[in-house]
Design brief:
With 397 residues, the protein is mainly alpha-helical. It has one domain. Helices cover 63% and strands 2% of the residues. The chain has a 3-stranded mixed sheet with strand order 1-3-2. A hairpin with a 6-residue loop joins strand 2 and strand 3. The radius of gyration is 21 Å and the shape is globular.
Length: 397
């Protein structure tokens, strides 16, 4: 811990959190991310419109559907950023950087394998295709971070910021132009088919997500500051991110290939302004989503009562909750489909849903609340197990 602290001479040693201490604001924000992320996933399975068109397609969507999708944009970047913060804080309790590096690359590999063998079957309804998504991106970010942590913390911060600021310079480069290097570009920067002829898609090209996790690691020393100073810094950073987003988005000079447009009605114009690129995450997307996440951290530090307890419970077991909620959603969707007599055989091939499929957007909200309530007892049980025991394998779940 001494070596790490010596890199940050501006931090009073008596103000640092203790090794192994959990910050409630981080747990609560993780829990909020899990709950909001579940809304997006429930919508995917219970609202047939999700299978007919992209909810951000401004020619076909409507405000309630667009905003339901938009609010969930905050989940993946916040979760990835917090993974970087947590990696730094976890390193304070380890003997050296080598131990942290080993933990990061093994956990990163574990997340990638989970995404391939446990998560993909949910999204592809058992078709055998692979969809590389959130866990893949965080896993690759952890593996990259296992190398980057041997640099000074400020250097990791600079690298993360540089990736997020510059990767949109390559938006004009298309995998189709790169011949034999096309699969590598799909992995790094452009959503596309899997390499080596494998069935499936890379939904989360990893380069920008490496930038997000490195940014979280580089900013993590802020979380060692006393609460009031930490809150001021996080609010200032959050407002700075959002102000930068507003300026860049309004001018359209750089940072997102999808520019906003004016429509005859103001509501659709406003939606266009918010229609930012997630695959891969543009600079506009990163600034807007991380800006909100940074503002939420000090606010959630003060959250108490049942609300705070529920958020912290989900946030202490995020991977467990992530896997559990997906399988709960899949089981519930299949039961509803059977009850309604829906033929779901064509869904795995990406075909249009039957007319009587799903429950609509309102029904998706109801199922979201029911499913999260149903999995909460299991998450609370596992959170108690993790508090009570210190088995090494628990850090991978």
């Amino acid at each position: 811990m001494t070596k790490t602290m010596e890199e940050i001479p501006s931090i009073p040693r008596d103000a640092a959190i203790g090794a192994g201490t959990r910050l409630l604001s981080i747990d609560r924000l993780r829990g909020l991310v899990i709950i909001v992320m579940a809304l997006d996933h429930v919508r995917d399975f219970f609202d047939a419109d999700a299978l007919r068109f992209d909810p951000t397609d401004l020619e076909r969507t409507y405000p309630a559907l667009f905003l339901t999708r938009f609010v969930t944009h905050f989940c993946a970047p916040t979760f990835t950023f917090l993974a970087g913060v947590s990696a730094y804080l976890h390193g304070l309790s380890l003997e050296d950087r080598g131990a942290l590096s080993r933990f990061l690359w093994t956990r990163g590999l574990w997340l990638i394998l989970l995404d391939i063998f446990i998560i993909s079957p949910v999204w592809t309804v058992g078709s055998g295709a692979i969809e590389l998504g959130t866990l893949w991106a965080i896993g690759c970010g952890m593996i990259a971070l296992s190398v980057l942590i041997h640099l000074p913390t400020r250097a990791v911060l600079a690298i993360g910021a540089a990736i997020l600021l510059s990767h949109n310079l390559f938006d004009g480069v298309r995998a189709a132009q790169l011949g034999g290097f096309a699969p590598l570009w799909n992995v790094l920067h452009e959503k596309g088919p899997l390499p080596f002829g494998l069935r499936g898609q890379v939904y989360y090209p990893v380069l920008p997500w490496i930038g997000v996790i490195a940014l979280g690691y580089g900013l993590a020393p802020v979380f060692l500051w006393p609460p009031e100073r930490r809150a001021r810094a996080l609010v200032a950073l959050g407002l700075g991110f959002l102000a930068s987003f507003a300026v860049l988005r309004a001018t359209g000079v750089y940072g997102d290939a999808r520019l906003w447009r004016s429509f005859p009605d103001g509501a659709r114009t406003a939606l266009s302004f918010l229609d930012i690129t997630k695959y891969p995450p543009s600079l506009h997307y990163a600034l807007a989503t991380l800006g909100v996440g940074l503002l939420l951290l000090p606010a959630l530090e003060r959250a108490g009562g049942a609300f705070g307890r529920v958020l912290a419970t989900f946030g202490r077991v995020p991977l467990f909750a992530y896997v559990l909620h997906l399988y709960a959603i899949l089981a519930a969707a299949l039961l509803v489909a059977i009850a309604k007599g829906v033929d779901i055989k064509g869904l795995e091939s990406g075909g249009p849903p039957p007319e009587n499929y799903g429950l609509g957007l309102a029904g998706a909200y109801v199922m979201w609340a029911l499913i999260m309530a149903a999995i909460y007892p299991a998450c609370a049980w596992f959170a108690r197990v993790k508090r009570r025991r210190r088995d090494w394998w628990l850090s991978y779940l």
